[in-house]
Amino acid sequence: MVLIDILLGGLTLGGLYALVAMGLTLQYGVARIMNLAHGEFLILASFAAFVLVSQWRLHPLLALVLALPLGFALQWAVYRVLLTPLVRRTQAGPALEADSILATFGLLFIVQGIVLVIFGGNYYSYSYLSVPVSILGSTVAANRLLVLALAVLIGGALYVALIKTRLGTAVRVVAVAPRFAPLVGIDVRALSALAFGLGGALVAACGVLVSMFLPFSASMGVVFTMKALVVVIMGGVGHLAGCLAAGLLLGLVESIVARLVDPGLTLAATYVLFLGVLLLRPAGLFGRAAR
């Protein structure tokens, strides 16, 4: 069943892309930091999971549970140590975006260099739930289904937390009106650090999910950053629902091209879709044009 194969493959990839992009849009939408090292932290988490599973014999799901608080702590520390001085110097103005792009661009090479020194440029993977499962006449690996379910669970939990909780409401206030948030007693810098850390927790979880079903190498982080940027812009900057829709759309298009045309053309298809969406909806699928 080619159609079922394409649908399951597209949803798995799309769910993963959406989760990576949610972390990036949270960091940019609230903290105003365009983190170009986002994908490098994903690959760092993939290698950490590889070590924990293959050498320490830890269960991959336990590695996923550990990745969430560790990813949060690491990126919270990055924001406090590296980026807070930039926020103070620019007073969170327009110059912050340019300065943070340069700072995280340098961070990209530092993280990638450390991983290359330790692991080299080879591809790594480990075997987990690599057993076939039959669904409606189509065969799919069980680890892909698990990754799809976990991506939906984590993304859904984040969305509900931002919509239904008091803390989530405060985060959304900072995203929409950071200058007026202090008037109602909101600590903008503390919540910006929190949002940046949450983005780090998401991307660390994505790294563990990637390690469960895909081979990975030290140089793959740039690809995930690029695709996360594409999804964020296609969905509309700062919109979690837009990330979900754009991520699923991108995953399905890549799956169709890889299965019916040529796997080597998936990157080209990504950019054709990206340009097409921007031509029809310049502010993204869920964004609104400035007036």
TrEMBL record:
Membrane spanning stretches: 6-26, 33-53, 59-79, 100-121, 141-162, 192-216, 228-253, 265-286
Origin species: Caldimonas aquatica
Family according to the record: Belongs to the binding-protein-dependent transport system permease family. LivHM subfamily.
Keywords: Amino-acid transport, Cell membrane, Membrane, Transmembrane, Transmembrane helix, Transport
Name recorded for this polypeptide: Branched-chain amino acid ABC transporter permease
PANTHER family named in the record: AMINO ACID ABC TRANSPORTER PERMEASE PROTEIN, BRANCHED-CHAIN AMINO ACID TRANSPORT SYSTEM PERMEASE PROTEIN LIVH
Subcellular location: Cell membrane
One Pfam short name: BPD_transp_2
